[in-house]
Amino acid sequence: MVPTADSKLKEILLPLCATEPHRLDTRARACFYVLAMSSRSRIKVPAKKPRSWAVTLIRNRGYFLGWVDAPSEKAAELLAAKTFTLMEWQRKRLLVRERL
Question: How far is CA 4 from CA 8, 9, 10, 24, 41, in A?
Fold first, then answer.
């Protein structure tokens, strides 16, 4: 196994930090902090990009309420209900369309 730059820095910084932490300058402290952090890889699930949705309340005619940004149609409906403070009967009469 070939020693990496990280392992060499750990060999130098760990004993120094344990015995004389006040001697480390700010760059060395930052480097030590990064090295001391867990090195295991983390799996990140990419978030869906929010899309724009037109929200319309259906009455005799459609009453345009506005635009909301959400990743899905269901999320857009929930966000519209919160944003425009809609009651339950109004939520049932919502039309949510994606902006083209």
Answer: 6, 9, 10, 21, 17
For residue 53, the cross-strand partners are 68, 98
Reference 79, options 64, 63, 91, 89; nearest CA is: 91
The torsion angles phi and psi of 86, rounded to 5 degrees, stand at: -90, 150
pLDDT per residue, tens digit, the chain (100 aa), is 555 656 666 666 666 555 555 555 665 666 556 556 655 556 666 767 888 999 999 989 999 999 999 999 999 999 999 999 999 999 999 999 998 7
Q: Which domains does the chain have, with CATH numbers?
A: 5-36 (no CATH), 51-98 (3.10.20)
Q: Is 55 helix (H, G, I), strand (E, B) or coil?
A: strand
Q: What's the token pair of residue 72?
A: 């899905």
CA–CA distance, 30 with 37 (Å, rounded to integer)? 11
How much is the pTM?
0.52
